[in-house]
Amino acid sequence: MIGGTDMKVLMFGWEFPPKILGGLAVASYGITKGLSLQGDVETTFCLPKPTGEEEKFLKIIGMNQVPIVWRDVDYDYLKYRLPNYVTPEEYYGFRDHIYADFSYMHVNDLGCMEFAGGYPQNLHDEINNYSIIAGVVARSREFDIIHAHDWLTYPAGVHAKMVSGKPLCIHVHATDFDRSRGQVNPTVYSIEKNGMDHADCIMCVSELTRQTVINHYHQDPRKCVAMHNAVYPLSPELDAIPRVEHPKEKVVTFLGRITMQKGPEYFVEAAALVLKRTKNIRFVFAGSGDMYEAMVNLAAERGIADRFHFPGFQRGKQVYEAYKNSDVFVMPSVSEPFGIAPLEAMQCGTPSIISKQSGCGEILSNVIKVDYWDINAMADAIYSICTNPALFKYLQEEGKKEVDGITWEKVGLRHRAIYDELIRNNNK
Fold first, then answer.
1. 236-404 CATH pick, 3.10.20.30, 3.40.50.1000, 3.40.50.2000, 3.40.50.2300
2. Model-level pTM?
3. According to CATH, what is the number of the domain 7-230+408-427?
4. What is the DSSP string of 205-260?
5. Which of 183, 269, 302, 385 is close enough to 375 for a disulfide, judged by CB 3.0 to 4.6 Å?
């Protein structure tokens, strides 16, 4: 511990439950919760636009409530205008640390910037605005270490480091190489690389991602660590969802964004091969994304549309109902830095098939792993689990046991040890 006090982490993120747009929110929650279980770590989490419904085990700062232009506002007006998680005192504290003339920026009556939240058309403007505001936050808070999640908040992390001289840890949940199948966006790449160049430690969600960071972003291997994700034990409510047995027709599910990165076309092609052998299997394609229409058309072209269901984007409890209504879960990702979905499926007692190009495969052994492009192997695996009750039962029981041991508390312990080392080195 630092001088007998708690460790204070200033964390920059873009998503946090209850507003879940993708895996980033789930991982941000897990990491901060795992840190809170260490007992002496205090995390301040900055978000563009909180809902006010976030859990209270950490301090949330809404970047849309931090002034960057001085406005003469009185206490009572602030009490009326600010949401319940920001006090007028905090507002004044931030206002005292405005560090430049931003009066040319588009601000509201409190001198604050509005955020759309999520991933709007003007995303790059929002990222830039967020990093400007990070300068006010970093000047007005006390902290020992900075942690920035994903490229959206790297500029904010770098700014906070410049202001404070504190060590910067960045978290790579995915790189643009994963998202684009190699067709990298140069602007995004340069933001990612700049964040990595300035970081004292780069936490990567898998060894797969770590190698991408070392080889494609030319980073020092000594500052890159693989930090695998974990899962939360199922809440009583989710645990109580009954598993659905399918004696006649088995159900095989894909659940995720229907985008290039997730390899959806391989799922359809493998399904077509399986359906040549048996008609007693239905395929569920849950999710939304820019390849949705193309996948509906592909299923029709292959003459298997009657065996396919497209329920659309699933959220919250629906996700777990989908897992528990499945006999097999398939994640055929072309490039998956980690991939939390198979762990969630296994928690629900659903055997999983994952691509060998998935980071979670580094820590899972009770799954079937195939190359994403090998539709014959994928079809064989689907067919085997659906037609061999002993294999189904083995993967179900052993998979659940394995995943129950992969906890965020253990991940929090590793974060804590890395923070300690970074702070020690910084104080030398």
1. 3.40.50.2000
2. 0.88
3. 3.40.50.2000
4. SSHHHHHHHHHHS---GGGEEE----BPPPPHHHHTSPPPP-SSSEEEEEES--SG
5. 269
